[in-house]
TrEMBL record:
The keyword Zinc applies. Its main location: cytoplasm. InterPro entries: Aminoacylase-1_M20A, ArgE/DapE_CS, N-acyl_aa_amidohydrolase, Peptidase_M20. The active site is at 78, 143 (proton acceptor). PANTHER family: AMINOACYLASE-1 (PTHR45892), PUTATIVE-RELATED (PTHR45892:SF3). Binds 2 Zn(2+) ions per subunit. Zn(2+) 2 binds at residues 109, 144, 382. It comes from Dioscorea zingiberensis. This is N-acyl-aliphatic-L-amino acid amidohydrolase. SUPFAM superfamilies: Zn-dependent exopeptidases. The keyword tRNA processing does not apply. It is found in: Cytoplasm. One of its GO terms (molecular function) is metal ion binding. The lineage of its organism: Eukaryota, Viridiplantae, Streptophyta, Embryophyta, Tracheophyta. One of its GO terms (biological process) is amino acid metabolic process.
Amino acid sequence: ITELEQAQIDLFQQYLRINTAHPSPDYAAATSFLSSQGHSIGLRSQTFFFSPNKPLLLLSWPGSDPSLPSILLNSHIDSVPVEPSKWSHPPFAAHRDPHGRIFARGSQDDKCLAVQYLEALRALKASGFSPLRSIHVSFVPDEEIGGADGAARFAESDEFKELNVGFVLDEGQASPTDEFRVFYADRLPWSLIVKAVGSPGHGSRLYDGAALENLMECVEAIARFRDNQFDLVKEGLRASSEVISVNTIYMKAGIPSPTGFVMNMQPSEGEVGYDVRVPPTVDIGFLRTRLDEEWAPVTRNMTYELFPRGPKLRDNGGRPLATATDESNPWWSVFEKAVIASGGKLSKPEILASTTDARFMRQWGIPALGFSPMTNTPILLHEHNEHLKDTVFLKGIKVYEHIISALSSFPANSS
Ligand SMILES: CSCC[C@H](NC=O)C(=O)O
Ligand SMILES: [Zn+2]
Ligand SMILES: [Zn+2]
């Protein structure tokens, strides 16, 4: 390991030691750390407060032709919460074990990207590289909680329009194989809440139309639908992000008592909440019909709410928010060639099973790809013991050097 590589790992560990997990991410410490790195590289630095106490840091390297559409490299600063007692190493210590695995919340999702972008830019500067197009790096708050006060605000701001962004790179996911994964769209997150009411009754009585009897019928029907979707994945007919997922998030029912629940009382109401993810090509109307007619019919005293989660996106005239991954998108070829030139392989472009900030840029028609350069790495985002191997992290910097230099050198007239 070279001195430079050691310094890059140190920097990664420093960033990981800043606790940016919800519910109280330390955005001030994170942005001050990142902007001082930007300063040491010689990047221009701006901090926007689209929402109080939620800084959005933008670092920029002006291109030699600033009239051309620019490149934006995005990562989010925040992380999901941790249950520290369930980790084998403290989640904000960034412990590096003898195998080189660095354990920390955010190591894969997605604080690796921030440091890899910066180190790639530092290396390009050092090599005397000069970009044709301007390169912007954004570090945004609140991705994990929907981005309303982060990337959503940024993407609709005048400051963003002035950047004249032509292409965006945002987070993707780790790959367990030796091929990098790349994402061209997200599934959209919806919430489904089903409620049932019915007559209360003695716990010993068999009668029709109890609230939870109706609710359980619905729960079972949804479970069968979930199984059918999951079977398509298990049989290899679809990718997991190409089906609708419906996962139970909470169940609420029963008459509370000081010792638990009143056990001889069949309750008069109950409720179940689901996280629903829908591929960009699927019409949600299809789910409404199933709910109205089979799963939660009013004739069984059931009601439901099915609503999109997160900030409202622009209506794209029914077009899915997808970035083309063929010759119709010149940026795609530049990206693909750069990955190959770095010695990497790309697997078939995928839809992201979850969602991320790239959708806020795609809604303006800006091509955006999700990419986190981690091969031969278990997918650990949002899990206990999230970690990333030092060698994988370092390789990512090299990959970005290729990608960033290719994208920012991409000549005019093609885009
Ligand atoms: C409603 S937007 C929530 C965004 C979140 N992103 C990462 O996990 C997700 O649940 O996909
Ligand atoms: Zn993320
Ligand atoms: Zn996440």
